C-alpha cells in the first residue's frame, strides 16, 4: 500500500466533492474524508445509495454532508456550472474534488467495440470529467490550497487487450490531469491521478466475476493515498500518477 499514516482530524474544515460517492471506492472515500473532519459533497447517480452514505456519515458523528444527484451520462455544461455556483454559494470555496465515478463499458476485442458503448464510456469517463473539472476551477480558486484528483487505472498508461474504450478513456484522463497540472503549476491548485489497483468493488466484480474476493484489497485498504492527496501534506505534489497499492 501507499505508505502514509492517516492523521486524526487531518481534513478538518475542508470542503471535498466526491463523485461516484454511493458505492465502491467513492463511498469509502466519502466516509473516510468525513471521519477526518471534512464536509463531503456526495455526487452520484442513484439517490438511494447517496442517502445511505449520508446516513452513515451522520451516524458516525461526522460533519453533515451534502448530496448532489447527477447522472454524468446526461449532464450538461450548465448542470456543472449550476452545481459549482451552488457549492460556492453554500460553502464559499472548494478545497478538494475526487473525480472517481466512471464506467467499465464492456470488455471485448477492439474489433467488436460497439459505438454506443464507446460513446457512453467517453461521455462518463472523459467528457463529464472535463466539464466537471472546468466548472469547478472558480471554486478551487477561492480555497487557500485546492486538490483535484482524477482516477486512472492500471490500463490508463499501458493498453491491454480487450479493455478497449475503458483503457483508452483512462489514457485521456491521465492526459487531462497532466494538462491541468502543467497549467496550474505555481498556483494554489494541484492536480494528480490515482491508480487504485485491484480493489473489491462492484466494478471489479463485474470485470472479474470468478475472482476470490478475499485476495484483493478492500476500498478501506487503499485510503492512505486518497487521504494524502486531500490533506495539506500533499500541497507540493502536482502532475503525478500515484499507485494506491
Ligand atoms: N475497483 C477497481 O479494482 C479499480 C481498479 C482501477 C481503477 N478503478 C477506478 O476507480 C474508480 C471507482 O471504481 P469502483 O470500482 O469503486 O467502481 P464502482 O464500484 O462501479 O462505483 C462507481 C461509482 O460511480 C458511479 N457512477 C457510475 N456511472 C455514473 C454516472 N453516469 N453518473 C454518476 N455517477 C456514476 C456509480 O454510481 P451508481 O452506483 O449509482 O451507478 C458508483 O457509485 C473508477 O474510476 C474506476 O475506473 C477501480
What can you tell me about this protein's structure?
- This protein is α/β, with parallel strands linked by helices and 245 residues long.
- The chain contains 7 helices and 7 strands; from the N terminus they run E-H-E-H-E-H-E-H-E-H-E-H-H-E.
- Strands 3-2-1-4-5-6-7 form a 7-stranded parallel sheet, with helices on both faces.
- Helix 1 runs parallel beside helix 2 (47-59), helix 1 (24-35) packs across helix 7 and helix 4 (115-141) packs parallel to helix 5 (164-183).
- The protein starts with 14 loop residues before the first strand and ends with a strand.
- It binds NADP nicotinamide-adenine-dinucleotide phosphate.
- NADP nicotinamide-adenine-dinucleotide phosphate binds next to helix 1 and helix 6.
- Pfam families: adh_short.
- This is YciK family oxidoreductase.
- Belongs to the short-chain dehydrogenases/reductases (SDR) family.
- It comes from Thalassotalea loyana.
Topology:
Elements: E1 15-19, H1 24-35, E2 39-44, H2 47-59, E3 66-69, H3 77-91, E4 96-99, H4 115-141, E5 146-151, H5 164-183, E6 189-195, H6 202-207, H7 223-230, E7 241-243
Helix pairs in contact: 1-2, 1-7, 3-4, 4-5
NADP nicotinamide-adenine-dinucleotide phosphate binds next to helix 1 and helix 6.
Could you give the order of strands across the largest sheet?
3-2-1-4-5-6-7
Q: Write the element-wise H/E pattern from the N-terminal end onward.
A: EHEHEHEHEHEHHE
In helices, the fraction of residues equals: 40-55%
Uncertain parts = none
Share of β-strand residues = 5-15%
* Structural class determined from secondary elements: alpha/beta
Task: State the shape.
Answer: globular
The first-to-last residue Cα distance is 4 Å
The radius of gyration computed from the alpha-carbon positions, rounded to a whole number of angstroms, is 17 Å
The profile of the biggest β sheet is: 7 strands, parallel
How many DSSP H or I helices? 7
Which ions and ligands are bound to the chains?
A: NADP nicotinamide-adenine-dinucleotide phosphate
Number of strands: 7
Mean pLDDT: 98
